[in-house]
Design a protein that fits this description.
Largest sheet: 9 strands, mixed
Strand content: 35-45%
Number of strands: 23
Number of helices: 3
Structural class: mainly beta
CATH architecture of the largest domain: Sandwich
Order of helices and strands: EEEEEEEEHEEEEEHEEEEEEEEEEH
CATH class of the largest domain: Mainly Beta
Shape: globular
Distance between the termini: 31 Å
CATH topology of the largest domain: Jelly Rolls
């Protein structure tokens, strides 16, 4: 294996170091250390719902590697103990030791590692290494590397000699019971990450925020597909309101299973309305739309409109007053239902905007269509 460092040095948004206080009782998150990381508005490319997985780890004696990608915050039960010791909601390795009694401490380069397959290839903009509830048993430092490898490589192939990994986060000290955030400045696309912890310890969660960048040859081969889907390169650019949940949820795979798995706004008390804007996989022609209000029964959006815009003409997607073409007129929505509409004669678009009236929840938006020749060319970088 070999490594190279990306141009530019990642910045460390959450500079937390050292132990947290021992658990004092009560709310385990009361003294949790965190910060505002702007990149967390981007989707988590390591989300299990996208197909991400922890492929391998050299050690998981105390807690399983799969916990790293569990949705939601880590839980802590002070009374939970098993035959190996304290049960922790994260990935935790055994304590490393030196070679002999004269050198009892681990060597400087001793470390544990885990291999992560991202749910969709993408450009990584930021990473959170969350040590929630690991107060005195977190790693002293971490490092993160990435690689782009086609197909579905095995751990042995990823770790083979000659495989060139790119350093995204150099070895850096972190803190216990904290959200340790790192901004990554790189335009490279990655499919896998390697998380290293020095010399050992526990990490509760790993979040990898960025922009999906699927294989354009695969999208071209599909022909007609969901242009807005996150796994196909769709992206939630902006929304009027994110109070209850992220608009990125609306383009996740599958149907929503519960109310917080969609996009829901707070209750409006003015005369306005809410909206969400998605960037499509590329310039394309929409042919059919699904608006799903699944699990929203008393709080579904009342009506919806859909608009399209082609930014290749120079139109600004952020200006909602010009350049937008109606794709679906204002239409009544039913609670907890999938609404399907065919679009006749829709123009090419790079963005869609869903307006809901006056507020509420939409679980999923599906925009089925095909890339234009120009859209396919741009995705290929030609």
């Amino acid at each position: 294996m070999s490594t190279h460092v990306i141009s530019g040095t990642p910045s460390f948004n959450g500079s937390f170091t050292g132990d947290a206080r021992p658990y004092p009782g009560g709310d385990p998150y009361a003294d949790y250390r965190t910060a505002d990381f702007p990149f967390t508005r981007l989707p988590d490319l390591a989300d299990r719902r996208l197909g991400a997985a922890v492929l391998a780890a050299n050690d998981e004696f105390f807690a399983e590697r799969e916990n790293l990608l569990t949705p939601g915050p880590a839980r802590f039960d002070p009374e939970a103990f098993g035959h190996k010791g304290k049960i922790m909601d994260g990935w935790e390795t055994r304590r490393r030791r030196g070679a002999d009694a004269c050198t009892p401490h681990p060597a400087a380069e001793d470390h544990d590692w885990a291999l992560i397959r991202l749910g969709v290839p993408g450009v990584v903009r930021g990473v959170v290494v969350d040590t929630a509830h690991f107060r005195g048993n977190y790693p002293h430092a971490v490092g993160i590397e990435g690689i782009r490898m086609p197909g579905t490589p095995s751990p042995e192939e990823l770790l083979a000699d000659g495989v060139a990994w790119t350093v995204l986060v150099p070895r850096t000290r972190i803190g216990g019971h904290a959200a340790n955030g790192f901004t990554v400045d790189s335009a490279e696309c990655f499919t896998h990450l390697r998380l290293s912890q020095y010399p050992d310890g526990g990490i509760a969660r790993l979040r990898v925020h960025g922009e999906a960048a699927p294989d354009p040859a695969w999208l071209a081969a599909l022909g007609t597909f969901d242009l807005a889907a996150l796994e196909n390169g769709g992206h939630a650019e902006d929304a009027s309101d994110r109070f209850y949940s992220s608009p990125a949820n609306g383009i996740h795979p599958g149907r929503s299973r519960k109310m917080d798995d969609g996009w829901e706004t707070r209750r409006r008390r003015d005369r306005g309305h809410d909206w969400v804007r998605y960037r499509l996989a590329g310039q394309s022609v929409p042919r059919a739309v699904e608006i799903d209000t699944g699990c929203y029964k008393g709080n579904a959006a009342g009506w919806a409109e859909l608009w399209g815009l082609d930014a290749t003409t120079g139109a600004d997607p952020g200006d909602h007053t010009t350049g937008w073409t109606p794709l679906l007129p204002r239409t009544r929505l039913q609670p907890d239902a999938v609404h399907r509409f065919t679009l006749t004669g829709a123009p090419a678009a790079t963005h869609v905007r869903l307006d809901i009236y006056p507020d509420g929840g939409v679980a999923r938006l599906r925009v089925h269509g095909s890339l234009t020749k120009e859209g396919e060319r741009r995705l290929r970088g030609a």
